[in-house]
Amino acid sequence: MEQKKTVIVTGFEPFGEHTVNASWVAVQELEKLGLRHDINLHVAEVPVEYQAVQSLLPSLWKQHLPQLVVHVGVSGMATTVTLEQCGHNQGYMRLDNCSFCPESRCCMAGGPDCIQSVIDMDAVCKRVSSSGLGVSVSVSKDAGRYLCDYTYYMSLFMGEGRSAFVHVPPLGKPYSAEQLARALRAVILEMLELMEHNKGKKHCVHDQ
After folding, report:
1. Cα separations (Å) of 55 from 50, 94, 156, 158?
2. What mean pLDDT do residues 31-53 have?
3. pTM for this entry
4. DSSP code at position 112
5. What beta strand segments (E) does the chain contain?
6. For 133, which of 51, 63, 89, 118 is 20 to 30 Å away at the CA?
7. Per-chain mean pLDDT for the chain
8. If you classify domain 5-204 with CATH, what class do you get?
9. The one catalytic residue among 86, 107, 125, 148
10. What are the residue ranges spanned by the domains of the chain?
């Protein structure tokens, strides 16, 4: 019998003007939907704190040994479900929920400036957009140099590129939590499909 795949999907706690964080609400809806019968789905809420992310992420990767970790965050500027291609190491000056920001302004001293996901987000976007889902999907290369970008970079580093980040708009602008959950489900299944297809093909993760 084929072993079940394990996927971790995270959302963030409330912060700033986002007193309800659409990312965590959508991830909880996704948990109700499930991904597929042959996939173990684990969800977690991530604090909007740099130091908490530093300790939480390694434990998620070690505890579950996932094939893929997908982080979901909210963006007040987003009007589409936005797939982020890469995470950035430097430029973290915005204070977190504990009024803290890294002294070095970076995720990892000496780490590469940018780490790409092994997943081709343009390909995922095209496939999901042509599936008649009714939710607009786009691709970005700038996750915003805050906890979203920070979390993504750390996860890409730990998972050797087997991570993804998805920005969602605030609830009702224009999508409901259920619409966002269905979009996340479609996106994640497409990502797994692509990863399966590309197995064995060598991929250079670190951009110098």
Report:
1. 9, 19, 15, 12
2. 97
3. 0.94
4. -
5. 5-12, 39-46, 68-74, 81-84, 86-88, 114-116, 137-140, 163-168, 206-207
6. 118
7. 94
8. alpha beta
9. 148
10. 5-204
